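Ticket #378: bound-state structure for 2-acetamido-2-deoxy-beta-D-glucopyranose.
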Amino acid sequence: MFFSFPALLALLALSALSVAAPSNPKVVSMDVSKKTYLGSVKGRPGVYISTYISVGTPPQSFEVSFDTGSSDLWIPAVGDDQTGGPGLFNPQASSTFKSLGTSFNAAYVGGTAQGYWVTDNVNAAGLSLSNLQLGAVSNMQDQKQGILGVSFKQVEMSVRNGQPQYYNFPFSAKEQGFIDHVLYSLHFDGPHSPDGTFLLGGIDHAKYSGDLHYYNVANPSAGPQINFKSLVLDGHELDFNLPVTLDSGSLAIAFPDTQFRAIGSGLNLTNYNKDMGLYYIDCQAEISVDFKFDGLTISANSSSLVLPMGFFSGDTTDPSCVLGVQNSALYESPNDAVLGEPFLKNAYVVYDLEDYSIGLAPAVYTDKSDVQAVSRTL
Ligand SMILES: *[C@@H]1O[C@H](CO)[C@@H](O)[C@H](O)[C@H]1NC(C)=O
Ligand SMILES: *[C@@H]1O[C@H](CO)[C@@H](O)[C@H](O)[C@H]1NC(C)=O
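RESOLUTION: The complex was predicted; output attached.
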């Protein structure tokens, strides 16, 4: 998830090239997995959801943070002042690399990234995209991990700076014939499991219960946001009615101060760590929280909501636990409401970037699958 948008020079929108027609069904399944940051967040190690891609010809491999809250792909690269090294993209070694001659600047919650815009071939799972636009980052603060942002074109760093949109990873997948509709689904294997699946172009109907409920994304330039109605704690309902971002790039659920404190009171939590914006909670606490959307309830319990403090502080020897809800007063945008990983583990989420809607249903954890490639408006 990003929080500010430094200046960026002019960009040209790219028209993606066609490639040989991929085989049916038109879905691409990518594994995602929770990992500890290679770098740090504000000086502390962090946790992110990762996946693997390769860039260039011949391919150079990268582990990247998988982020539904931002829209650009960027990777660490060899800079003018660097001779290169492991984990850095070396453009000289790629025969398909092209520089766009414009600078790339991004500021994420994990740090800032500066470099330049390039195009090159990108491979991920069964997907092989030609000339995808991405950021080659030679100067990073804190954040040491590249990011695969898969959100709306309206959230692209270029657009945030008044420049044209371009075909990012999910939109290029459609332009180049790998999927028929710019949509993807995200689910995790269980409330404790670090692993999940990003299914580009389709929906796995075995992985949720009941019907998918679709919600309109009213303002795509704010990211994958839908209206969140209320939270039920211990039978007591707190009315929220605010837009929330369904953000895989967030380790926590986050609410503005007022709502955050209401949740703490509702759960009788009093021990607040102000520096971290987190409530301590008994590691054995049995809690149950219902997240309510119009016509739909997603329930969560301690297995996804009570987390080791070490997840946030990086100190894995700390035996204390915290509620996986953070005060967004600590964020650059203190009014942000974010449903990050502790919520997402309980839901099956369909992000339809083409029709600006998000589908939600309670998750079912199963090895069974019933994948449907989506070819049109749902
Ligand atoms: C909070 O405390 C009140 C009063 O002791 C009690 O009725 C309520 O059940 C508690 N709630 C939780 C979630 O423990
Ligand atoms: C908590 O939720 C998980 C996942 O839905 C479920 O497997 C588990 O049984 C629940 N635990 C309790 C105590 O209800």
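RESOLUTION NOTES: The longest strand covers residues 127-141.
TICKET STATUS: resolved
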